[in-house]
Prior knowledge:
The protein is mostly helical. The protein has helices spanning 2-14, 23-38, 43-50, 58-61, 70-92, 94-97, 102-111, 114-125, 129-138, 141-153.
Amino acid sequence: MVEKYVALIDYQIEKLNDEAFDFEAWKSGAMVILGRVFGPNDLKVQQLDSIRVEYGSSWSMRAVSGSFNPIASAIKQGREILTVAKKELELFGDEFVGIRGKYWEDILSAALKLNEYKKLQTLLNHNDLDGLEKFVNGLESKTVKNILLEALKKL
Length: 155
């Protein structure tokens, strides 16, 4: 699975060199890819979302060299974020994607009730280990079996 994710990221990095490049369209695609791999709340997705092309900002007008290129700067930031994401996948493998990745997101959203799924997302986002333990202990046996069955089906 990691190879497919790396191939997706490579594809998105290659698009940075297209002649008819549109940064906002590229950024949207990159966010979809990283959201699928790492989960929509991952810091890399948030960092991509925060990249802005600042044409004519007062800061860029004050650039000493006068050669500041806002698109080039945004592209450089985007490339770096995707390069780091790719390296994380290569070094840590499938286990890195973890519970916040698309694989587990699909399983958990199918097996849990909507309010349970939202509660789990909140606990994960806050790294609340005590809350996670209470949450898991509070699940019905049938729910736990469904999660395990869905996970095994995807192997």
